[in-house]
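Everyone, carefully examine this protein record:
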Amino acid sequence: MKFLAKNIRGNFIKVKIENIDDLWWLNNLIEEGDLIKTKTYRRKKMEDVGKSEREMVIIKISVEKFEFTGKIIHVIGKIVESSDEDVPLHSYHSFNISVDDIIALEKIFNEYHIEILKEAEKGNFLRQILIVVVDEGTANIALLKDVRVEYSEISGNIGGKRNMEGRDKRKTEFYANILNFIKKFSVYKIIIGGAGFEKENFYE
């Protein structure tokens, strides 16, 4: 979570949502009665053509309901401020908060909320663990995050025991592919496991 502005005593923060984990932290921070300001869309009736079109506005709502679906936070509340004077105040509006969105949150922050902010502000790598399970020609990789697990698999054509020619070279290339893949991650800890001596061979 990227903090663009933070004034705890002034009951205000402005953040950019960078990933799904940030949504989880934000969901634990929001409460009924909080004020959220963000860009959103409303349908505006075009009287001259008798149709309506979606128009981007900046709206602040007083939160009444919200739900985290795992990918977005759906928020419903009454409008208390709008960049468009034609938008009626105190009418209901809903919007989704998703990755890459920027929102301003106004609330009274207690000690619990401040702890959430501290955790959210830490680099995600401090809470991420990478598990690598190595077998003959296959590596299963799991990235453990705050609220989810991401799985990956790497395969290599090592060949069986009857095809020993060049097998050591192919296995070395397979291990190198695994290593290059896991180097992409900034994590707190890497755990290596697997059947037989494969984990030791890869570690060495």
